[in-house]
Amino acid sequence: MVRIVYRGYRQILALLLATAVILAGLTSPVGYKAEASGYFHPTVVRGFNTSAFGDLKRAKEVFGANVFRLQLTPRTEAVRSGVPITIAWQRQLEYMEGALQEAARQGMYVIVDLHEPPLADPNLKTNTDDFWNNDVNGQLLVDSWKEIVQRFAPYRNNIWGYDLLNEPYNKSEPPIGNEKWPVWAQQITDAIRMYDKNTPIIYEASPGALPRGFVENKMIDAGPGYPVKWQGDFPLLRDDKVIYSLHMYNPFAYSHQGLSTVNKAPVSTDWPDKAAYPGMINGTYWDKNKLIQDLQEVRDFQLKYNVPIYVGEFSAIRWAPGAAEYIRDLIEIFEEYGWSWTFHAYKEWHGWDPEYNEVMTSDANRDSAKAAEPTDRELVLKAYFSRNEFLVPNGEPSPPPNLVLNGTFEKDFNNDGLADRWGKDANAVAALVDINGSKAQKISTPSNQRGLDQAYFAVSDQNRYRLSAKIRVISGKIIFQHKDFDSNTGFLANGPVVSGLTNTGGDFVTKTLEFVPAPRTAKMSVGIWTEMPSEFIVDDVELIDLGAAVPVNPPKTVADVVYPGHLEFRAAAYDGAAVARTEYRIVGRSGGWSTVPNGGLTLNPPGNYIVAYRSVDTFGHTERAKSLLVDALAPTTTASLSPVQPDGRNGWYVHPVTVTLASYDNLSGVAATVYSLNGGTNWRPYSRPVSFTKDGRSSFTYRSTDRAGNIEVSNTIGIQLDATAPAIAVSSPVLGDHPDAGNLTVQFAVTDNLSGVDDSKTAATLDGKAVGQGTAIPLHALPLGTHILAISATDLAGNTGSSTVTFRTVTSISALKDLVTRFAQEGFIDNAGIAGDLQQMLDHNSLSSFVNEVQAQSGKHISSEVAACLLRDARFLMNQQ
Fold first, then answer.
1. CA–CA distance, 139 with 130 (Å, rounded to integer)
2. CA-based end-to-end distance of the chain
3. Predicted confidence (pLDDT) per residue in 281-302, tens digit
4. Is 103 in contact with 66 (CB distance < 8 Å)?
5. Per-residue pLDDT, 35
6. Counting beta carbons within 10 angstroms of the beta carbon of residue 39, is it exposed (0 to 12), middle (13 to 18) or buried (19 or more)?
7. 819, 871 in Cβ contact below 8 A?
8. pLDDT of residue 742
9. What is the CA radius of gyration of the chain?
10. Which segments of the chain have a pLDDT < 50?
């Protein structure tokens, strides 16, 4: 994102959501839905989004960044330098190549970001129908990437990814993504793969790399006054190495606040759209939970397709209240999800620069906001950059760079005789001449005036510089010097001068100046001026930064986490000094620096801290502050059970139970999770879900330890498993034949050794009719034949058991005699003589006479019920004969 975008970004987003051309219900273009491979997991990188092509070494040494997302901005270059787009494009590629060479030397990564296409028409905007509806522009993107990929082939080990196009969107298509972008992106990808099969492709979601670009199969509502549209399947690229990218500035009203106010006063303490984080912003409360919610669609997309995510830009303007906490919350989310990220921005507009303080200052007054102490934003970044890993450096350490561009005069892209990057007076005549096979710049002036110069170079008034050039004066007299300017390009002073240089006799002479710029100098120009009509040739102009004018070797401090939450520091001083003190401060807390206590620093209460630290020596030299993440908070482990709740009664499980543990630590990470089945006496490593299949009461204790050594307080859950039904023992009746002259007493016992018997649910039936425990049943009352006693019982866990006993009631002559005796004794046969006659008939096996007599006396001296029983048995026996 370039500065011109920052100021108009609010209006741009309004346009982004203004009108629509894709019909509701339209999904992604046919053929552009693909399945991700799921195995591609690039190295996690953390660094800066920037256009500072020459600052990789400093960003690594000062901050610990391992990647630069470097912006190719040919249109901005053309406007800034007043050159055609073709020249501007080549300049940008030169910058990128130099940065890639330095990345190799530093073991860093570069993301090649096509921030602006090299469009010949300066009025054509990439957010319009005129751009997107012309396939010539798609071909321009393809051709640009072909050139990039082939030119940078030697540096592919250090290219983390090709970022195809910055924030693609068409302002006539919101709120959903640009219909043409997936098509063009696939064409670009296919073209890249013709030359480079392995370097990852970075695909920014449309519209504008906003998080909502990852929404799938939902209606997109951008708010009141905007259309509501259907966004279908996300158009995955057909390639095995794609990193999907977003930019995160939500809520925009917070991250970009004050832009309409910043240049209205040198310093501002209030502005109309001032908003704090966390807090209410445009009617919504924003905190870390809200940020998580805002990024949830991206997270869901990542998990669904198992693809890497990269946050190419995120930030909050430096004067936004709570900016450091906002940035920290976002980074914590990115880290938890395993996303790579580049912070916006390093050494660009001061509003985004973490090395400027939190006071709103105008552009003209920005120098006053240079932070005297490291900002919390800087320290938050440094703490997370400390996790970075680097490539093995490749190549010799780079020599001090020549700040002068094209100082050998070899490049003249427009062939006008004036070497690229250089300027001259309008009436001076320029020509490039060959000197021993290389180019040199020849200048002729008609008077005392500006001859040849170049501006501006970023310099420091604390450093020493060497300016040199080879000069051949043919005629006249020249001055070779530099001029010093402040950060707003206000002239400060002329620097040391080589003046009065006249005819050098046809030879080149080398002139060298060493100097420290004037106080407050931030920019510099170098050049040759003439004191009269003159003609000269110049070659090999160099401006070299020699380092600090007064070398300072501050102390160096190493922090050791001795045990969780406790830090000890080791510091060394140099050049005869001693360490006066080592200081620390907790980022995010009010208050300044404190001296580290004797014995080290213990952090309380438990938590995750960013600790900044530095040392001061006895000469007063203060080390540049460093910071680190300190994990003083134990991990958390959650247990989930299947079934989730007891599937029995009274807290009992009646089926096997599986316990699954999930451990989380958002800083150092979980080192181990263990569990115990005996209250912590013996611990077992947890590697897979633990199942309980045996009945009983069990305790399951668990805990985790993180990589910092923090041990979680043990948690215990109780599991009651009773999967066994109650035991039923029937003592009466027993299996077999039972003469129907006797009685049967129902006798059974129900036992359960775990949950216990639920007596209210114990039931017994005889041939389907309820009977009770201890019930005496006269067997003659039952039909002859088979009978079933069924008993069911339930325990307090809800398990139900049953038992059945099958028996038969039988009769015989002997049984009939017993029945006659029983019925006579019970008064159902009220005449002893009749009873005696019946016994004699049975003694003589005279069943027919027995039947006749019973029938004759039924209802008279023999009750009808008893008569029916005697007749049933007699006839049964007769049928058996």
1. 14
2. 113
3. 999 999 999 999 999 999 999 9
4. no
5. 52
6. exposed
7. no
8. 94
9. 46
10. 1-34
Is the preceding omega at residue 456 within 30 degrees of 0, hence cis? Answer: yes
Q: What distance in Å separates the CA atoms of residue 881 and residue 876, rounded to the nearest whole number?
A: 9
As a residue count, the chain comes to 881
> Mean of the per-residue pLDDT values for the chain?
92
Residue type at 220 in one-letter notation: I
Q: What angle do CA 209, 212, 215 make, to 5 degrees?
A: 120
Sequence letter at residue 328 = R
CA–CA gap between residue 453 and residue 441 (Å, rounded): 11
CA 443 to chain centre: 58
Positive or negative: CA dihedral 65, 67, 73, 77? positive
Coil, strand or helix at 354: coil
Half-sphere exposure of 542 (CA within 13 A, CB side): 17
Residue with tokens 């997107």: 132
E strand residue ranges, 93-241: 109-113, 159-163, 201-204, 218-221, 228-231
pLDDT at residue 477 in the model: 96
C-alpha span between 693 and 700 (Å, rounded): 14
Alpha-carbon dihedral angle through residues 483, 489, 493, 494, given to the nearest 10 degrees: 20
For residue 644, what are the contacts with CB-CB under 8 A and spacing of at least 6?
none
Q: Do the Cβ atoms of 739 and 818 come closer than 8 Å?
A: yes
DSSP bridge pairs for 703 = 674
Nearest to 328 by CA among 267, 395, 286, 377: 377
Please tell me the distance from the alpha carbon of residue 625 to that of residue 640, in angstroms, as a whole number.
44
Distances (CA, A) of 478 to 445, 511, 753, 823: 10, 12, 111, 153
DSSP assignment, residue 532? S
CB neighbour class for 229 (10 Å; exposed up to 12, middle 13-18, buried from 19): buried
Phi and psi torsions of 818, nearest 5°: -65, -35
- Other Cβ atoms closer than 10 A to 340: 25
User: What is the distance between the alpha carbons of residues 212 and 248, in angstroms, rounded to a whole number?
Assistant: 10
Per-residue pLDDT tens over the stretch 637-651: 999 999 999 999 999
Predicted pLDDT of residue 221: 85
Q: What is the pLDDT of residue 38?
A: 60
Q: State how far the alpha carbon of 93 is from the alpha carbons of 192, 202, 410, in Å.
A: 17, 19, 16
Residue type at position 247: H
- The string of DSSP codes covering 218-238 is EEEE--TTS-EEEE-S----S
Q: What tens digit of pLDDT does each residue of 525-565 get?
A: 999 999 999 999 999 999 999 999 998 999 999 999 999 99
> Which residue type is seen at 693?
T
Q: What's the token pair of residue 215?
A: 């929404």
Residue 817 tokens read as 């005699």
Q: How many helices (H) and strands (E) does the chain have?
A: 16, 46
DSSP structural state of residue 123:
T
Provide the residue type at 289 as one letter. Answer: N
The verdict on whether omega for the bond into residue 266 sits within 30 degrees of 0, i.e. cis, is: no
* 13 exposure class (CB count in 10 Å sphere: 0-12, 13-18, 19+): buried
To 10 degrees, what angle do helices 832-843 and 813-825 make? 170
All residues at 6 or more sequence positions from 86 whose CB lies less than 8 Å from its CB, including other chains? 118, 413
Give the separation between CA 249 and CA 49, rounded to whole angstroms.
14
For the four alpha carbons of 203, 177, 236 and 331, in that order, the dihedral sign comes to positive
Within 10 Å of residue 176's Cβ, how many Cβ atoms? Answer: 24
Largest Cα–Cα distance in the chain? 173
CA pair distance 583, 591, nearest whole angstrom:
12
Please give the Cα distance from 212 to 577 (Å, whole number).
Answer: 56
DSSP 397: P
Answer yes or no: are the C-beta atoms of 593 and 528 closer than 8 Å: no
Alpha helices in 306-352 (DSSP H): 323-337
Percent of the chain as helix, strand, coil, to the nearest 5? 25, 35, 45
Q: How many CB atoms lie within 10 A of CB 384?
A: 22
- Give the H or E element holding residue 865: helix 864-880
